[in-house]
Amino acid sequence: MTKQENDFSFTDLFWPLTNKKVVGILIAVGFIVHYHVLFNGFVWDDLTYIIGNPELKNFNLVTLVGPNMFNSSGYFRPLPAVYFSLLHHLFGNTAFFYHFFQLSLHIVCTSLLYFIFQKFFSRGLSLFLALVFLVHPINVESVAYVGSTQSQLYFIFGCLAFYLSLKNVSSLRQTLLIHGLLLLALLTKEVSFLFLLLIYSYKLLTQKQISRTFIFYTVVTVLIYLTIRFSVLGAVLQKMHLIPISEISLWERLVHIPIILFYYPKTFFWPQILAIDQIWTISQINWSTFYLPLLFDVIFYGGLLALLVYFYKRHRSVVKPYLLFLFWFISGLGLLLQIFPLDMTVADRWFYFPIVGLLGVVGIVIERFKIRNLFLAFFILAALSVRTMVRNADWYSTLTLYGHDAGFYPNYDIENYLGADLVSAGRPQEALVHFKKSVALLPHDTNIFNIGSVYELLKDYPNSKIYYQQALSVKDKYLNHAQVRQLAAEGLSRVTLRLGEYRLSIDSARANLVEFPTNGSLWGYLAIGEYLLNNKPEAIKAAANAKTYLPNTTTEKLYQMIINNQDLTPLLK
Question: Is residue 393 a part of any domain in this protein?
Fold first, then answer.
């Protein structure tokens, strides 16, 4: 495969268009279009995996490479854990620096992509394709969402390995460097094995064979990765809970393939609706959920195949690069078809890899059919940039993001998140509406508990009691369900005391202390209940345990009040 030397119209505007100028353009455009991101806060899972993750507080390589939140539930991603821990060590919880480095990494990814494209296209066309990647709205989730920085990290390692593989001369040093980069990519995100497939595809297309040395080091790299992974995680994959697409059968997931194959190209060419946490599923096969997407898929993917036949007959010089980029696109999509269930139905950040293949296909079409309209190119880039700026603003805070995205799809998760944010904003009545929507869509211990906590905040203790009881008995458990159960147990004992149901409060506390014997709050509520029923010896024992397991001024004061026979009813207000 050789680069085509014909100039794209961009070269007339920036002549002489050097690589140094191109990198400068990418940096400038990247920071202008994504400027708003720098001043956004932490949102979504950032609050759990980064801000609220105690494992990142101390920079300890043993902890970060071993079992932790990044290396669990079938995921093994130690390098992102190291990256976030290092940023936390340097900058604490200041979101600006996390966004700054993530945006900088996105620009680095774009620059690498430009140099890869330049191996196949003219400099001007390569710049245009790289700019589309840089400013495309479908990549906002990969740039504005701090937790998605792993997309840039694995992409950089993988693209560097692929770029080195494009060189015709191969040496042992180059081979070692390629496989070292691939190992780093695999330790960042599992999808990186696609870069290995790309490298082998390119070599087979251009060299017809792959050296035994290269194959040997590939085997060694994979074995090293698997050894590290299984030594930490073992061979067992944990089932994802409360993810609708993972709860249905394989056949039911296969029915989603047409709409999934439709979603990504549709969003690429018309990025009007962008939303996070898309966990919707198809409840019935009809025109809009199955047949219309299937019709589009037949036309679109059939068109890609027709182009291959056309190029084979008329322009054989582009067949190999076309096959390469088509494989890049299709292989990336193949992992998103829910044959193996993922934690969402679709996600914009997952398109960070396949979009390159689609851009490569578009580049070949532009070049072969001599599409050289400068105005059209600027219009496309400007339209994409404006849409990206608007979408970046949605990511300003959890309240703006959830408030915007909640209206697109019925989503128990976002409704629950939005309710929690509204409580934090001092708007409990509005929060109650969203928590109830969440429960109506999929009841679980957390959203039911949240309703109980809002009712307690509103001093509606009878309703609060009902929902705390439901939270303790519900079948479906959400993330951090052990913590939620403890909070629900504490809440039930607390509101029953306030309702004057002292015996029920005591029975509830004792029952839940079997499961949580070191919960100081439960011991405290037990002490109050026993004291109010005139069981002072039992109250003293419980208060002593409260002091032991929750040593603070409150438990000390409670203990002293019981010892001195003081009135405890003020504590219930």
Answer: no
